[in-house]
Amino acid sequence: MSGDGVERGGGGNRADDTVRRYVLLGGRPRGRKGTQDSLALQPVEATPDGRLKIDVRPARRQRLAGVVLAASETTILAAQSDFTDVVLVLSNVDTAARTFTLYHVPSGGAAADANCIGKTVTLAVNGDPKVYEFVGLSKGETLSGLCDSASKVAVTVYGVAL
User: Fold this and answer.
1) Which of 56, 59, 81, 140 has the most crowded CB, counting CB atoms within 10 A?
2) pTM reported for the whole predicted model
C-alpha cells in the first residue's frame, strides 16, 4: 500500500488493475481520560456511479465483564475470543482501604507470580480507581484476581472483540 492509502495490484493490463482504498477511522479522544475509539482500517468501495461507499463503524470498547473480587482467586474474564484495547477498572467499594492482586494467565496456565499484573496493590477509600490497559487478550487467556477482603473491590473489563 502506498502512502496515499491506496493499494494497487494487477498485472499491468489496465482492465485487470485493481485499486482498493482504505480510510483510517477513530482514534480521537472522547471526553474522559482513557476512553477513545479504536483505530480501524476500513475498506472503501466505489459505487457504479463513482461515489465512494465507506463502512463507517469504528470499533468501540464494550463492557466485557463485571465482578466483585473474593478473598481467594476469582476469574474476572475467561476470553472466549480475541480482544483488543482491553481495559480493567478496579474500584474500592468499602469504607476502608483494600488491596488486590491481578493475574493475566496464559491459555492452559495458572495464576502465579510469573503472570502477575499487580501484587497487593492498595486502593484508598474514596480514592481514584486503578486502571490497567492491555493491547490485547487472546482466546483461552484468563484475567483473575483476589482481594484482601471478599466483595470489597469491584472490577469492570472493557474491550473490543475481534
Assistant:
1) 59
2) 0.64
